[in-house]
């Protein structure tokens, strides 16, 4: 259906054009906007169910209000996951709308993990704003995270269908992997060496699993069989690894204006992200010098007061050792595997083209 | 089936007699032991699925190992919830075993909430041992709590049946109430006055909802309809309120040797528990004096170094104002409502008698 004419020829120009099928497969902005427009009201309605003060804390987290409770025009994130969940329903031949509860449930789980991870990691900023634990205290960050996690299951299970039960099971599996990934992430920060394989496994858990769920959950709700859902998950998992490789690049070399994070953000947090572990594994003088520096940093009591120049020196060594280029290649490699997986499922060609465009978007983004 | 002879006459004396139907309805100890014996191996197997170090942290929380990782003979709690979940299945005419995944899921949710609540409340002791956040740090308490919550849904949803989906939905509803109750509990600690009604609502959320779920989830897994499950929930909800009223009495006047908590535990934490709010609402000289003292305490910077005598004086005023007696009566009143609800469901008379005995046990316990 076009954006102005219905199947029977009458004008159906909707109040919000995003509610239509996105006909142009190259228009990623429209796809992301549709995901946001269709899922946002349902997400808000779900969050509104929370008892005070959790509803307010959650609204702050999502950027709907500011710290003083005034309405805000928040940066709700890139909305890749909701866009994927709607395309997922369409991949199974169902209308995009069938994927909405899945889109909302995945966003709730994603935001549950952000609330808890920011507290565990001591991150003070997210999306250009103070994190929830900074503004509302640790207890509210824990509590509202828990509430969003429960709400995610509620949104699915209250549908009361067999498909919803299958969708909830996939979401639970993905949530467990997300938690495994955070456990690995925390433990790696205290270790001197992490292998590239360990890092990829952690990133697959932390990012791949939920993206995989986003791109299968709509199909499951739309009646797809397990084989179709599994193949869509393979696309999502590798897309997630590509996404995370790009995130790791942005976590070191990203523009703080775009990312909303501090300069050298991941280095400040001693994250053993892909560029770091790849540089350490590469061998050679720059790799060895980096290894010595990071080993000293781990014992240093001044680490928290390091200057910009000290982090810049570490970033330069990572680049010199080849960690930056390896990670960029890894993003492209995972992107290619994701695209390849798309050919294992029968789906409308338009949807396949859109999933391909979304994958392209993920690897070239700047935030 | 008796404990020594099978239906076809051969000896079937099991290795663990707890695996049998508990024939004597007055034997609460055997009922609790059966709940523990049948659910513990499944609970352990579920927790074993957690990735390191979460499996170890969880094993410490459950009391299976000590802080050094050595096997321990832990105090796993009273195991009222597993006993209820198994009886719940029997109430629906199913074998007790049908309730096991429900018993395990409810225990996982209960322990998720303990891990997070202990951290939020700053509680340093639970079941005579240091709490997880004290031993393993706040991040592990958050993470392992999250993992147990996810695992609870996994244990149910992996059954893949329509009944399991319905059970998971009830568990999710109960979990949301549990979280609402913790939010209320936290907010009440910062308020000067809490009404008896607000306190009862909070306790219904924090304790009633999960006990209600325990006593309906086995029936749902055993194929009971919603009306039967709802009526069992009514029993469980009021049993939960009776349970909590007794807990509130033990939280002030309990013997630390039995409870594993500090003397005047709830007073030290400024908990607005039932005896406190009832005493404040009672009026009269003791009530007024108590109100003045607690208002001063809220502003006092020495509160953390108060002596035993200072807490004892507050406890005496609560008793003098009638808060202790009112709470004891409330436990008996909720107990009676719970028993009354049991008559709204058709169930084997033995099971009804056992649910009655369990309710009696809950209101006379010392820990």
From TrEMBL, chains A, B:
SUPFAM superfamilies cross-referenced by the UniProt entry: Terpenoid synthases (SSF48576)
Domain of life: Bacteria
GO MF terms held by the record: metal ion binding; prenyltransferase activity
InterPro entries linked to this entry: Isoprenoid_synthase_dom_sf, Polyprenyl_synt, Polyprenyl_synt_CS
Key words, A-Z: Magnesium, Metal-binding, Transferase
Biological process per Gene Ontology, one example term: isoprenoid biosynthetic process
Composition-biased stretches (Polar residues): 1-14
Chain spans, region Disordered: 1-22
A matching Pfam family: polyprenyl_synt
Family that this chain belongs to: Belongs to the FPP/GGPP synthase family.
Protein name: Polyprenyl synthetase
Organism: Streptomyces pratensis (strain ATCC 33331 / IAF-45CD)
């Amino acid at each position: 259906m076009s954006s102005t004419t219905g199947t029977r020829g009458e004008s159906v120009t909707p109040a919000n054009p995003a509610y239509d099928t996105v006909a142009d497969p190259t228009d990623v902005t429209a796809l992301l906007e549709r995901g946001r427009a269709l899922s946002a009201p349902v997400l808000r309605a779900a969050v509104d169910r929370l008892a005070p003060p959790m509803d307010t804390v959650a609204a702050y987290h999502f950027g709907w209000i500011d710290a003083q409770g005034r309405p805000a025009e928040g940066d709700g994130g890139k909305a890749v996951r909701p866009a994927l969940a709607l395309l997922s329903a369409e991949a199974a031949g169902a209308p995009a709308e069938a994927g909405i509860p899945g889109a909302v449930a995945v966003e709730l789980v994603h935001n549950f993990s952000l609330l808890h991870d920011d507290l565990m990691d001591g991150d003070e900023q997210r999306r250009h704003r103070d994190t929830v634990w900074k503004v509302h205290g640790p207890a509210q960050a824990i509590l509202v995270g828990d509430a969003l996690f429960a709400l995610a299951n509620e949104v699915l299970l209250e549908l009361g269908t067999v498909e919803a039960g299958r969708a909830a099971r996939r979401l639970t599996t993905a949530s467990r992997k997300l938690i495994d990934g955070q456990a690995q992430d925390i433990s790696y920060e205290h270790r001197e060496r992490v292998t590239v394989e360990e890092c990829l496994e952690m990133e697959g858990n932390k990012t791949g699993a939920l993206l995989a769920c986003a791109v299968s959950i709509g199909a499951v709700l739309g009646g797809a069989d397990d084989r179709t859902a599994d193949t869509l998950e393979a696309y999502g998992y590798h897309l997630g690894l590509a996404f995370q490789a790009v995130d790791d690049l942005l976590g070191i070399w990203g523009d703080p204006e775009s990312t909303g994070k501090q300069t050298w953000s991941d280095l400040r947090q001693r994250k053993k992200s892909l560029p770091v572990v790849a540089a350490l594994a590469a061998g050679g003088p720059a790799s060895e010098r980096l290894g010595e520096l990071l080993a000293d940093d781990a014992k240093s009591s001044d680490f928290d007061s390091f200057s910009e120049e000290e982090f810049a020196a570490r970033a330069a060594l990572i680049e010199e050792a080849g960690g930056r280029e390896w990670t960029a290649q890894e993003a492209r490699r995972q992107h290619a595997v994701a695209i390849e997986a798309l050919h294992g499922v029968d789906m409308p060609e338009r949807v396949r083209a859109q999933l391909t465009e979304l994958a392209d978007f993920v690897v070239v983004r700047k935030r």
